[in-house]
Amino acid sequence: MLFVAVRATLQNTRVDGHSMEPALRDGQYLLVNKLAYKFSHPRRGDIVVFPSPQDRRRVLIKRIVGLPGEEVAIVSGQVYINGVALDEPYILKANANGSWGPRVLGPNEYLVLGDNRDNSNDSRSFGPISEEDIIGKAWFSLWPPGLHIGQLPQMTAESNMAAKR
After folding, report:
1. Is 120 a known active-site residue?
2. Which H or E run includes 4?
3. Of the candidates 114, 69, 112, 118, which has an alpha carbon nearest to the alpha carbon of residue 98?
4. Dihedral angle sign, alpha carbons of residues 101, 89, 106, 32
5. Are 114 and 63 in contact (CB under 8 A)?
6. 51 prior amide bond cis, ω within 30
7. Contact 37/139 with Cβ under 8 angstroms?
């Protein structure tokens, strides 16, 4: 019974690739909180796990940048939410040539991007994801030793947008 309870609430996953550097590293093992969004909605800055829209057998790990109902645009690598530049201290570097949108997200759509924008397969190529597709929130780093072991730091909407208001 304990095993079933744990599997219903947590899932382990492995970071595959460099798209979330420097926050997450290739080969890092994480616990995913599958109950995180049963009683609340995803927030900007959350790192989420979801099936790849291109190959549903694989999972992707990305950061939520745009929320339902927001107009999102990327101009020369800078993300704008409803015309306001988004402060993203977690990204490796902005791709100065990267542009996307503008697009108003639907009532159940989230724009997800990798922190390493030059090396990320994310909403810029496959579009927004729906809340139903989100498996859970990346919550805890398990492995390998030498990297951060413990609860992952969270970036909230307030900390991201406060500097630009």
Report:
1. no
2. helix 2-9
3. 118
4. positive
5. yes
6. no
7. no
Residue of 34, 38, 52, 62 marked active site:
62
CATH 2.10.109.10 for domain 2-164, yes or no, is yes
Q: Which of these is catalytic: 19, 120, 123, 141?
A: 19
In the residue annotation, 40 being an active-site residue is answered as no
Burial tier of 46 (Cβ tally within 10 Å: 0-12, 13-18, 19+): buried
What is the DSSP secondary structure assignment for residue 147, as one 8-state letter? Answer: B
Residue type for position 145: P
Centroid of chain to Cα 112: 5
Q: Indicate the pLDDT class of residue 144, thresholds 50, 70 and 90.
A: low
pLDDT digits (tens, 9 = 90+) for 26-82: 888 888 888 888 889 999 999 999 999 888 888 999 999 999 999 999 998 899 999
